[in-house]
Design a protein that fits this description.
- This protein starts with a strand and ends in a 9-residue tail after the last helix.
- It has a six-stranded mixed beta sheet, with helices on both faces. It has a four-stranded mixed beta sheet with strand order 4-6-8-9.
- Helices cover 45% and strands 16% of the residues.
- β2, α1 and β3 form a beta-alpha-beta unit.
- α1 runs parallel beside α3.
- The chain is globular and about 65 Å long.
- By secondary structure, it is α/β, with parallel strands linked by helices.
Length: 255
């Protein structure tokens, strides 16, 4: 049974983590389902923005389910759990559509790392953020000590990763990690997403690629995607494809 639900209802899609009995802690299956949701969204011509949220009122996501990695060998932990999770999180980051994470309750460890993958975040007043991995003898593995440093300063990340301090909503807002603190974070995220519907989806896609390339988020892929979009619109590209199909030499015009 799926514990990650994708609902595409009009132009605003919603991904919901649905494992409330374990505070929406991520399992191997949930990671795979998240990747499948991303693939479906990229193929969807209708979805123009994505809201990421969690089921229940106790946690957005408490991180990775320890039963999924606790008994792994060091090699399997590094090769399969950490690298695979990182790859799937990167897949969510690279969505061509604007994304909003709704931190309606606590986001710890892998849950905070997942929220950091969204373009912006909306947070409830009583929610907190934490990197508690050291308390169980590990370190953040899905961007907590890397991607998070592009969104928060080094001292703040060290507070969480080394000293176990939590960030509350007001401080997260002051630091710019969240865009809004709201008593109704899902409704606020929905309103923000609806505002985006007035703009060009292609402009959103290209702007996201440019911003990611500028800050070093998968820079090589973003630069090549932008170049691919430019060359794909040329007459030379159409002529090259036609010549290949017709088994003749292309006559490039520079258009």
């Amino acid at each position: 049974m799926s514990a990650v639900h994708l609902n595409i209802d009009g132009p605003i899609a919603r991904i919901t983590l649905d494992n409330p009995a374990k505070l929406n802690a991520l399992t191997v299956e949930m990671l795979q389902q998240l990747e499948e949701a991303c693939a479906t969204l990229e193929r969807s011509p209708h979805a123009r923005a994505v809201i990421l949220t969690g089921e229940g009122n106790r946690a957005f996501c408490a991180g990775a389910d320890i039963t999924g990695w606790g008994d792994l060998t060091p090699t399997d932990f590094a090769r399969n759990w950490v690298r695979e999770g990182h790859r799937i999180y990167d897949r969510f980051v690279r969505l061509s559509k604007p994304t909003i994470a709704v931190i309606h309750a606590h986001a710890f460890g892998g849950g905070l790392e997942l929220a950091a993958c969204a373009d912006i975040r909306v947070m409830a007043p009583n929610a907190t953020l934490a990197l508690p991995e050291a308390q169980v003898g590990i370190v953040p593995g899905w961007g907590g000590n890397t991607r998070l440093l592009r969104l928060l300063s080094e001292p703040v990340v060290k507070e969480m990763a080394l000293f176990g301090r939590r960030l509350n909503a007001d401080r997260a807002l002051a630091l710019g990690f969240v865009s809004d603190v709201s008593d109704t974070p899902l409704a606020t995220a929905q309103a923000i997403a609806e505002q985006a519907m007035a703009a060009s989806p292609r402009a959103h896609e290209v702007a996201k690629y440019q911003i990611h390339a500028a800050v070093g988020e998968d820079r090589a892929a973003m630069i090549e995607a932008l170049g691919g979009g430019m060359i794909g619109a040329t007459g030379d590209r159409a002529e090259g494809v036609a010549a290949f199909k017709e088994k003749r030499q292309p006559d490039f015009s520079g258009d």
